[in-house]
Amino acid sequence: MSLILMKRIAQEAKDASARLSCLSADDRNAAIRGMAKQIASDADAILTANRLDMRDAERAGLNAAMLGRLRLDEKKIEAMVRGLETIAKLPDPLGRELEKIVRPNGLHIKKISVPLGVLLIIYESRPNVTADCAGLCVKSGNAVILRGGREAARSNAAIHDSIATALKKRGIAPAAVSFVESTDRKDVEHLLALSGEIDVVIPRGGPSLMKTVSAKSKIPVLKHLDGICHTFVDRDADLAMAVRICENAKAQNPGVCNAMETLLVDKPVAAKFLPFLAQRMKARGVELRGCAETQKILKGIKAASEKDWSTEYLDLILSVRVVNGVEAAVEHIRKYGSKHSDAIVSENASTRTRFSKAVDSACVFENCSTRFNDGGEFGMGAEMGISTDKLHARGPVGLRELTTYQYIVSGHGQIRE
Amino acid sequence: MSLILMKRIAQEAKDASARLSCLSADDRNAAIRGMAKQIASDADAILTANRLDMRDAERAGLNAAMLGRLRLDEKKIEAMVRGLETIAKLPDPLGRELEKIVRPNGLHIKKISVPLGVLLIIYESRPNVTADCAGLCVKSGNAVILRGGREAARSNAAIHDSIATALKKRGIAPAAVSFVESTDRKDVEHLLALSGEIDVVIPRGGPSLMKTVSAKSKIPVLKHLDGICHTFVDRDADLAMAVRICENAKAQNPGVCNAMETLLVDKPVAAKFLPFLAQRMKARGVELRGCAETQKILKGIKAASEKDWSTEYLDLILSVRVVNGVEAAVEHIRKYGSKHSDAIVSENASTRTRFSKAVDSACVFENCSTRFNDGGEFGMGAEMGISTDKLHARGPVGLRELTTYQYIVSGHGQIRE
Question: How far apart are CA A97 and CA A89, in angstroms?
Answer without folding.
Answer: 20
